[in-house]
Amino acid sequence: MATIKLTYFDVDGGRGEPIRLILSWAGIDFEDNRFPFSEFAEVRKKTPFKQVPIVEMDGAVITQTNALCRYFGKLAGLYPDNDMAALLCDEAMDVIEDITAKFVATFSLKGDDLKQSRETLADGPLKHVLSWLEQRVTDSNSGWLAGGEVTIADLKVWVFVRSLLSGQFDHISPTLVFELAPKVVEHCNKVAALPKLVEYYSKRKLSENS
Amino acid sequence: MATIKLTYFDVDGGRGEPIRLILSWAGIDFEDNRFPFSEFAEVRKKTPFKQVPIVEMDGAVITQTNALCRYFGKLAGLYPDNDMAALLCDEAMDVIEDITAKFVATFSLKGDDLKQSRETLADGPLKHVLSWLEQRVTDSNSGWLAGGEVTIADLKVWVFVRSLLSGQFDHISPTLVFELAPKVVEHCNKVAALPKLVEYYSKRKLSENS
After folding, report:
1. Cα–Cα distance between A157 and A130 in angstroms, integer?
2. Which of B57, B77, B97 is at the close of a domain?
């Protein structure tokens, strides 16, 4: 396996976190190159699209979080072999990317502008995404989003919904998730209890405290 | 095969066009449900995310253009079997989605706001995308973007670059493409000459004139 270096913010969330989880799930060693937000202006200069995450593999720089999740997801056994299940998996991944981009567009706003943008987001795109996820989980026979097994889509949805539930986004109340998507909350609890993820976060806590 | 209905604007471009091309390439019959921009306000109400394209397959509504391109791309033989080639293919697809979203964000602007946004786009994100594509085409042994054969990424990049070259975007000069990405122009000429695409557009012209 190539040497792998992931560069992303020093947060356990966002577009970098699913890649970390999937690499860890696959048991693939990688350099987890975390940097503080204060260094983003410098870090981004060296990336192809002035964005993170990027992954360096034997010198090649690869961008785009969903593409990377899919690649490592295949190695981790977290990507469906069945074409229709793969379509549903990919769709959910892209749905979360779409709404993530809409959140990111509000990060530089302040005061009333932030409040108005976040409320518009909550009452429109975010509501649509949560309702759609609720329906997908409701319609699922397995409880997973795509096919009969856990996939990268379940992990990515969980990372996103967890961030909503944490209350970290001003003017976006966690109660919105409980109201619109109670089955998605159950789904998230199921993901959080996956032994591979429990193991990852217990190790992560140790490394943070060491 | 399921009955397939694609709903998208009545334009030979944007996020719907690669799906049409890939379905046609695969020889899959589908209902090409085109609507004029003036009907978008009505059409979007019936879609999960108030966005198009959507594809209906035997009653199920599937969203997200790249997910759909990948699914139909597998059926068309336009998606790499090799995992690393698939990663590069997916990356290029997501790069074009990213820049497309940035263009779409300018569509509602007018006057100086439009001019300023488009110039910022041309001098930043678009420049990065064109330079990156130029490097990828330059580095390619086959002349295709991902692996040794034409893939959905080549088609999607072509649809996007063709729209730039058409001059349809105010304040974005087609000369930018020739200056920053001459090899991408060559790549696009190669895509345009693919017999399956030539056939598709000659039939399309006939249907438009009939």
Report:
1. 10
2. B77
